[in-house]
Amino acid sequence: MSMTSIPVKLRSSPIDLSTVDGPKMALAPELLAACERKEYRVSGLRPMELRVGFDERVAAWLDACDAYLAVVITAWNPFGRQLSSEENDVRQRELMFAVEGSRLRWSPAAGVDPMGEWVSEEGICVFDPPLILIDEWLRVFEQSAVLQGSGSGYVRLRLHPQFRPPA
User: Fold this and answer.
1) How many CB atoms lie within 10 A of CB 91?
2) How far is CA 48 from CA 34, 43, 79, 120, in A?
3) With contact defined as beta carbons under 8 Å apart, do 123 and 134 qualify?
4) Strand-pair partners of 111
5) Residue 130 zone, left/alpha/beta (φ > 0; ψ -120 to 50; rest)
6) What is the pLDDT of residues 132-160, one digit of tens each?
7) pLDDT at 120 over 60
8) What pLDDT shows up at residue 31?
9) Are residues 40 and 72 in contact, defined by beta-carbon separation less than 8 angstroms?
10) What value does the mean pLDDT take over residues 17-34?
11) Rg (the chain; Cα; Å)
């Protein structure tokens, strides 16, 4: 599979992370907590609800999907900054264009806060993506994290490269 980078030009103004707190930043604890408690609902032919943690059903679901990895990503509300529904819709269409251009398999998804403190966000569940491409999309679409479910049954957040601790 060739990894073609799909140029994406977003219409909202980007957030420059390199000018804040040096080369690395910490993810705001309330934003991290919101990401961790969300229910990530994948629809399509094989619906599944994903949550951070271990769930043996995730391994069986991925096996049924003939996949080893599922990543749920959105383009809504960059770095937790609330945008209008029109701006979010434009960003989500641009993400959809990038996903379709990657020729990876995907299903519609949504991130839902069971406590109702955060608005539900439209998303996309991408199957078996190269992690370098996910990191690119995290940067381009200014997302703090994606949800990553593996064939081992573990579901975790993959943070934006800027928020990861040094290797």
Assistant:
1) 25
2) 20, 7, 25, 16
3) no
4) 40, 121
5) beta
6) 999 999 999 999 999 999 999 999 999 99
7) yes
8) 83
9) yes
10) 65
11) 15
- Interacting residues of 82 by C-beta distance below 8 A, sequence separation 6+: 119
Are the C-beta atoms of 136 and 148 separated by less than 8 Å?
Answer: no
Tokens linked to 24: 């690395």
Backbone angles phi, psi at 116, to 5 degrees: 75, 15
Whether 137 and 160 have beta carbons less than 8 Å apart is answered as no
What would the two tokens of residue 70 be? 């599922």
Alpha-carbon gap, residue 76 to 120, rounded angstroms = 10
**What DSSP string runs through the chain?**
----------SSPPP-GGGSSTT--PPPHHHHHHHHH-EEEE-SSS-EEE-SEE-HHHHHHHHHTT-SEEEEE--SSGGG----HHHHHHHHHHHHHHHHHHT--EEEEEEE-TTSSS--EEEEEEES--HHHHHHHHHHTT-SEEEEEETTSEEEEEE-GGGSPP-
Give the tokens for residue 104. 């990876």
